[in-house]
Every structure is written in structure tokens, then in C-alpha cells.
Design a protein that fits this description.
Strand content: under 5%
Largest sheet: none
Number of helices: 15
Number of strands: 0
Distance between the termini: 12 Å
Order of helices and strands: HHHHHHHHHHHHHHH
Length: 310
């Protein structure tokens, strides 16, 4: 496969996954900000996770629910907004129109057309919930169309690779940001705020029900970290994501990806054979910082191995 085609497939999937992840973060953060109206910390979480806090504060100065909503959802000048993620996904899908199935193209193109309608209408905090739910549904339809209709060839593999690289990056970043935020809580507020903030984190990755099914107990940092880092059966955990990344890389033909496969295998081995006690002994924040760096390096390695000519 030409590197340009591979790059478009990879970034098509990454942008659709990023749009969903942003919608999840934004939904939970808006709900938490309404629950704790006196604090702006919850509004800053999606900005911190997406690395856009400085740009937002330069343009808007004070975070408000309406300003954060517009910036992350519909702002055409914010490269990481849901609007731009869906536009980029559609542009990449158009380039590889002959490679993807009709069903997949119709999902991406239809999503972009509806996205333009949302932007023309605008959003407020009352319509935000419907919009963010729509984003999640469109992302699910995109992945379902791909999984259900595509040949298991390099077209499918590069699309899946983009999905799981982006998902792993999001899980590591939100866990890292929330860990730092919660550790800064005042001692007298710790018990109440910690519970709601850890629960919000779990909901942002669809992990609240899974947590209850597995642990059947109060929410603790150790168990949340174990669920989102080490559990192989939690779809958005780092271990599960790297399990899929390794499977995909092994199925892409050729020797160009040897360094990417080696780096992904090393990360997967650490996640497989680590324990939550080891992670907390080393420091949860330090471990997450290291994992984020590893994911960035893996992304760069994939780019150099497969996509550089694009």
C-alpha cells in the first residue's frame, strides 16, 4: 500500500476516535462543573487533556461552560475541535474513497454533513448533551461499518491502528490529568470530591459499570488505575489497546515496521507483567508520564516506518 493511502486511513480513524474522546471528556466535565459550580477545575480537564489550555486562555481568558463547549466542539480555529476532527476524517476518507467500503464512506460523509448543520445552528449548554451523544453514536457507527464490511487487509489494519493509538493516548492522558487534579484537592474535601472525580473519570471512558462489575466496592485510585492500565478485558485500558496494536502491526506485511513492532511489544510486555503495586511504588504520575512519552514515540515510529512519504 502507498504510504499516502496508509496515512489517510490511519488519520481518518484517529480523527474519528479523537472526536469521540473529546465528546466524552466534554460531556463529563460539563456535568461536573454544574455539580461543583464554584470550581473551574472540571472545565479545564478537557483542555488539559487535549493540550489546548494555553490557546484557550489566550483567546477567552476565563473558562465558562459555554466558551469551553464552543471551543472544543465547533471552533473552526481550534485544530483539535470536534468540528475539525470530523472535517479531517472526511478529507482523509475522500482520498481513500476507492479503498474503503461504500458503507464506511457514507458514515464519514454523512457525519460531516450533519456536523456542518450543528455548527450552523450553534450550541448552548442545553443542547450540548444531544450533540455530544450524537458524536459518540457517529463514531460507533463509523467503527461498526468498518469492522463489519472491510476486507481484513492493510486498509482495515491501518484504520484499526489509528483507532487504538488514539484511544491509548486518550486513556493515559485523562488518567494522568485527573490523578494530578485529584491529588491537589484540599484534605477536608478529599472524600467527597475524590469519589465524584474518580467516578467522572470512569464514565468518560465508559468504565463505571465495568468497575462495579469487577470490584463491587467503593472507588479507589488503585483500582481505577488497575482497570484503566492493566486489565486486558477493559476495552479502553492501555493493556487492551496495546494488545490490539500489536495484533494489527503483526498483520501488516513487510519489514518496514520492525522497529514499530519492537517498541509496541516492549510496551505491551511492561503492561502485561506489571502489577498495580509496582506502579504505585514507582509513582502513578511518573508511570503515566512515561507511558504518554512511549505512545508519542510509538506514533513517531509508525510515521517513520509506514507514513513518512505521505
Amino acid at each position: 500500500m502507498l504510504s499516502r493511502m496508509a496515512g489517510c486511513l490511519y488519520w481518518m480513524a484517529r480523527n474519528m476516535e479523537r472526536a469521540e474522546n473529546t465528546a466524552r471528556l466534554l460531556d463529563v466535565s460539563l456535568q461536573m462543573s454544574l455539580l461543583h459550580a464554584s470550581s473551574q477545575d472540571d472545565l479545564l480537564v478537557p483542555l488539559d487533556v487535549t493540550g489546548s489550555t494555553a490557546d484557550f486562555l489566550q483567546r477567552h481568558h476565563t473558562p465558562t461552560p459555554q466558551a469551553v463547549l464552543h471551543y472544543l466542539a465547533l471552533d473552526g480555529e481550534n485544530p483539535g475541535s470536534i468540528y475539525n476532527c470530523m472535517r479531517n476524517a472526511r478529507e482523509n476518507a475522500h482520498v481513500v474513497r476507492v479503498k474503503i467500503t461504500t458503507e464506511m464512506w457514507e458514515q464519514v460523509n454523512g457525519t460531516w454533513l450533519e456536523m456542518r448543520e450543528w455548527q450552523s445552528r450553534g450550541l448552548d449548554t442545553r443542547s450540548a448533551s444531544s450533540f455530544l451523544e450524537w458524536v459518540r453514536e457517529r463514531s460507533h457507527l463509523f467503527r461498526g461499518a468498518g469492522y463489519g464490511t472491510m476486507l481484513r487487509n492493510d486498509t482495515f489494519h491501518f484504520s484499526r491502528l489509528g483507532t487504538f493509538i488514539e484511544r491509548a493516548d486518550n486513556t493515559a492522558r485523562i488518567l494522568n490529568v485527573k490523578t494530578k487534579q485529584i491529588s491537589d484537592n484540599e484534605p477536608e474535601a478529599e472524600n467527597i470530591l475524590d469519589y465524584y472525580q474518580w467516578a467522572a473519570l470512569l464514565r468518560s471512558v465508559s468504565g463505571f459499570e465495568a468497575y462495579r462489575d469487577i470490584y463491587r466496592d467503593s472507588i479507589t485510585p488503585e483500582r481505577v488505575a488497575e482497570l484503566l492500565i492493566l486489565r486486558h478485558d477493559m476495552p479502553r485500558s492501555l493493556r487492551a489497546c496495546f494488545g490490539e496494536i500489536n495484533k494489527v502491526l503483526a498483520r501488516i506485511e513487510g519489514h518496514a515496521g520492525r522497529s514499530a513492532r519492537r517498541r509496541a511489544s516492549e510496551i505491551q510486555a511492561r503492561l502485561t507483567y506489571s502489577s498495580i503495586e509496582d506502579i504505585f511504588a514507582d509513582g502513578l504520575e511518573q508511570t503515566l508520564d512515561s507511558l504518554i512519552d512511549d505512545i508519542i514515540l510509538l506514533g513517531n515510529t509508525i510515521h517513520h516506518s509506514y507514513l513518512e512519504a505521505a
